[in-house]
Amino acid sequence: MAIKYNSSIAGKTALLILTALVVALIPACSSPAASTVSSGFELLEDSTTISVRLYGIMEYATYGIRFTHPTTLEVLTVPTGWMNYSFRGFDLRQEATQTITDQVHGTVTADAAWITNLVYTRYLTRSTDNDGVFYKVVMNNIPIIEINEGLARAYVAGADIRKYVESVEYYEQSVIDGQLVITTTYLSTDWQKDIGGQAPYILVLFEEGEGAGLPPC
C-alpha cells in the first residue's frame, strides 16, 4: 500500500518546530521586580547614625523672669540600629567638664517618604550631682526630602513646622545649698519669627558610617 504524503500537515509541523526554536533562543527580559536598584527604605535602613535639630526662638523662665533666646535643641551622630521600620539610637560622650547622653527612637513609613514619629532626648550633666541641662522633643510626620546612598535628609522650615512638633520639654538645674534645683524651664516657641533671615526649622540626617553630622546653624 502506498502512503500518501500530506504537504500541508508537514508544512505546519515544520513551522511549529521553527517557532519553538526561536522562542527558546530569545533571552528572557528582566522584570522591574528583579532590578538590583535599592529602594528608598533599603537605602535608609543602611544608615548607622542619626542627627536631629530643632531651631527657633524659644521663651524660658528663670526664677520667674521670662526671656527669649535663639535656641538649637539637637543630638549629633547618634549610633542607630533598625528593626523593620523602627530605629533606635544611644550615645554617651565623656568630655572634660561634662557628660552628654543622647537618645533617639522613631518610625518611618514603608516607602521611606515620612518619619511618622521621632523622639529625642539629651542629658548634659556637669557634676556627679547631675546639675546641667535636659531636653526632650517629640515630632510627627516629617517629610523625608532626599535619599541617596549614605545619606537621607528630612527638612521643614518656617512657621509651618509647628504642626510637626508635638511637644518640647527643657529645663536647667543646679545644686544650690546642697539641693538640686530647677532654675530654668522652657515655656514656648515663636514659630513666626526669623533670626537674621533664618526661619525656624527641623533637620534630620540619617548617615552611613561616621557621617559629617549637622552643619553649623
Overall description:
The structure is a single chain. With 217 residues, the protein is mostly beta strands. It has one domain. Helix content is 12%, strand content 55%. The protein is built from two helices and ten strands. The chain has helices at 7-25, 40-45; strands spanning 49-62, 65-83, 86-94, 99-108, 114-125, 132-148, 151-157, 165-176, 179-190, 201-207. Strands 1, 2, 3, 4, 5, 6, 7, 8, 9 and 10 form a ten-stranded antiparallel beta sheet that branches. The radius of gyration is 30 Å and the shape is globular.
Topology:
Layout: H1 7-25, H2 40-45, E1 49-62, E2 65-83, E3 86-94, E4 99-108, E5 114-125, E6 132-148, E7 151-157, E8 165-176, E9 179-190, E10 201-207
Antiparallel strand pairs: 1-2, 1-9, 1-10, 2-3, 3-4, 4-5, 5-6, 6-7, 6-8, 7-10, 8-9
Report, as a whole number of angstroms, the end-to-end distance. Answer: 102 Å
Total strand segments: 10
Helix content: 10-25%
User: Averaging pLDDT over every residue, what do you get?
Assistant: 82
Give unreliable regions as ranges: 1-37
Keywords:
mainly beta; 217 residues; 12% helix; globular; disordered N terminus; ten-stranded antiparallel beta sheet; 55% strand; single chain
Summarize it.
The longest helix has 19 residues, at 7-25. This protein has two helices and ten strands.
